[in-house]
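Study this protein:
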Amino acid sequence: MSTPQTLQEKLERLEILVDALLEERRGLREDLKAIEARMRSLGKESHASEVNGEEFMKTLDDLRRKLSESEAANQNFLRERSQVRERLEQLLARLDMIEAKLLEQRASSNP
């Protein structure tokens, strides 16, 4: 009986991690949008220095990389959560079968 509870706890922890990753991804996307908007405004300004532009592009590339890593980690957590959920469902179905057999045996032994 402790195995399904352990799996349920693991599933809940994975869901919390996935939610955190999704929130982080949203934040990174917002940062990326802000940087891209800033990049467009800097592009319109003729006095933007090349050094700042290079730093900006480096920051933009870094944020894109972080977003990509976050999305990959999110996919891994989603896959693992799905596997845990499937295993938990299998165990619960098996426990239901065992319970049904026990009830059947109890009913047949008590006429």
Q: What stands out?
A: The chain has a mean pLDDT of 84.
